[in-house]
Each structure stands twice: as C-alpha cells, then as structure tokens.
Amino acid sequence: MEERRRMVVDLCVCPGCPSWVECGEEGGFCFPTIGRSSCIDEESGCICPSCPVTEKMNLNHDYYCTRGSEEEQSGM
User: Which of 32, 44, 50, 56 is the most buried (most CB within 10 A)?
Assistant: First the structure.
C-alpha cells in the first residue's frame, strides 16, 4: 500500500492545478489514505482528468482535493 501511495504522489500533478493552495501538502488526494486536502476549499478548475495517475489507476472522478478520494466519491 505504501508503495502505491508513493507512486501516486510521485506522478501527481496537483501543484499545477488552478485549485491548488500551497500549504505543505504533497497532493495525491485521489489515494484513499491521503484523501481530500485540509487547506483547499475552493474549486477553481481541475486537472485531475489529465493526471497520469487517472489513467494508471482507472480513476473516474475529479476534484479529489475537495471531494475526497476515488473510493469516497464512489461511496465505498
């Protein structure tokens, strides 16, 4: 699980997102053990669909930073 989390963070493009707020977080909000951001609270645009993690992990949602991980948004 830790290896997958590290892969997600390494491939993450969150810091390039219009909604990103710099507060020391790494991103990777789509991953269940990371979940939503503790400091991003405004949706100003989303680049999740273009993130390499989206394709690699077959993700279907967006705005993970404010709406929660793929599992949270899928009701799992």
Answer: 32
Residue 1, both tokens: 């699980």
pLDDT higher than 90, residue 33: yes
The end-to-end CA distance of the chain, in Å, is 17
Mean pLDDT of 56-75: 95
Query: What pLDDT is stored for residue 76 in this prediction?
Result: 74
Do 30 and 66 form a contact (C-beta atoms < 8 A)?
no
Domain definitions of the chain by residue range: 2-73
Calpha distance 18→33 (Å, rounded): 23
